[in-house]
Write a structure and sequence with these properties.
The chain is of the alpha/beta class and about 260 residues long. The chain has helices spanning about 30-45, 65-70, 75-80, 90-95, 110-120, 145-155, 155-165, 170-175, 185-200, 205-215, 225-235, 240-250, and strands at about 5-10, 15-20, 50-55, 100-105, 110, 120-125, 130, 170, 180-185. It folds into two domains: about 5-200, Alpha-Beta Complex (2-enoyl-CoA Hydratase, Chain A, domain 1), CATH 3.90.226.10; about 205-250, Lyase 2-enoyl-coa Hydratase, Chain  A, domain 2. The protein is built from twelve helices and nine strands. The protein binds hexanoyl-coenzyme A (HXC).
Length: about 260
């Protein structure tokens, strides 16, 4: 498939998606979001790929939904289209993707850009990264998880302040409050994201899928239900050949040879 707004490649067992609309600071037009969705779906279905990295490159992650494209859309069209969910199914795609997706964020991740990064499994940030939900400044509010995911990630006070004022959060603050997992110099960001994704891709895929599924459940259920879910998956892991291989390899002081079985 050929893409207009993104670049898609594989680096070993890692799928790499790069947003590529520099003239609009990678603003998330419908076409771009459809392409990201298609690329992630293709990687999800590709047995040769074990993890995905989503980046905007060294300059900017994404400055949000494409305001010029959204401008003037009638309410009833948005409502009937369940915008942005059904119209730009990338949000659903990321929610359903079982392979880990890492966001590598440099520069602005604003509005839908911040929401896109948060829809990934974790965020590695460059020192230049700036996160924000500035929709209130254009008379709107976050529409793709900004009020929900940000609040779960950083707590009510920070999320309220960001959504109500549009204040941006720099990389150091984002790491301090848990929005991002690590901060790196911009020139090392992509290499490190690819290296982390590569290490995940080498692991047992059933174990990785189970771990991701269990962590995601933490956002959706009570502690007791989540612990029960985790325990059942932990027990289930013992049914895989990879779990037997991993433990035998540890005991035998050798590298495991996982077969994703
Ligand atoms: C469309 C955008 C854009 C956007 C930047 N551009 N952001 N176009 N939609 N969100 C375009 C500008 O129009 C300009 O094009 C070019 O990119 C460079 O932008 P400048 O503003 O000239 O750059 P700079 O002065 O460096 O300022 C950067 C910025 C600013 C701080 C990121 O562009 C900005 O505030 N952008 C809007 C951020 C925002 O409000 N995002 C939330 C959108 S709503 P031209 O052609 O003029 O050179 C949203 C809702 C999500 O995301 C809903 C779910 C999908």
């Amino acid at each position: 498939m050929s893409y207009e707004h993104i670049r898609v490649e594989t680096r070993g067992a890692v799928g790499l998606v790069t947003l590529d609309r520099p003239e609009a600071m990678n603003a998330l037009c419908d076409g771009l979001l459809r392409e990201v969705s298609a690329a992630v779906r293709a990687f999800a279905a590709d047995d040769g790929v074990g993890a995905v990295v989503l980046t905007g490159g060294d300059e900017v992650f994404a400055a949000g939904a494409d305001i010029k494209e959204m401008q003037g859309r009638p309410f009833v069209d948005l409502f009937l289209g369940d915008f942005p969910n059904s119209h730009q199914e990338v949000w659903v795609t990321l929610e359903q993707c079982r392979k880990p997706v890492i966001a590598a964020v440099a520069g602005y991740a604003l509005g839908g850009g911040c929401e896109l990064a948060m829809a990934c499994d974790f965020i590695l940030a460059a020192e230049t990264a700036k996160f924000g939900q500035p929709e209130v400044k254009i008379g709107a509010l976050p529409g793709a998880g900004g009020t929900q995911r940000l609040t779960r990630l950083v707590g009510k006070s920070k999320a309220m302040e960001m959504c109500l004022t549009g204040r941006l959060m720099d990389a150091a603050e984002a790491e301090r409050v848990g929005l991002v997992s690590r901060v790196l110099p911009v020139e090392r960001l992509l290499d490190e994201a690819l290296a982390v994704a590569g290490r995940i891709a080498e692991l047992s895929r059933p174990a990785v899928f189970m771990a991701k599924e269990a962590v995601k459940v933490a956002d959706e259920t009570t502690l007791q239900e989540g612990l029960r879910f985790e325990r059942r998956l932990f027990e289930a892991a013992f049914a895989t050949a990879d779990c037997a291989e991993g433990m035998a390899a540890f005991a035998g002081k050798r590298k495991p040879a996982f077969r994703n079985r």
